[in-house]
Design goal:
alpha+beta, two-stranded antiparallel ribbon, 1 helix, 32% helix, isomerase
Length: 60
Amino acid sequence: MPTINIQIFEGRTVEQKRELVKAITEATVKTLQCSEGAVDIIIQDVKKENWATGGKLWSD
């Protein structure tokens, strides 16, 4: 059973998340030849103040 963890900046709509998990599920089923019911996806909304790249917070 694949479990996919996604971390994204907060602010996406529920509809955007629905579209994302649908697309990822379809790709996973096709690639791994598993059932849709076997695919778990966890989305974590992260504030920009809690994410940094290259030593700089995204909120800066």
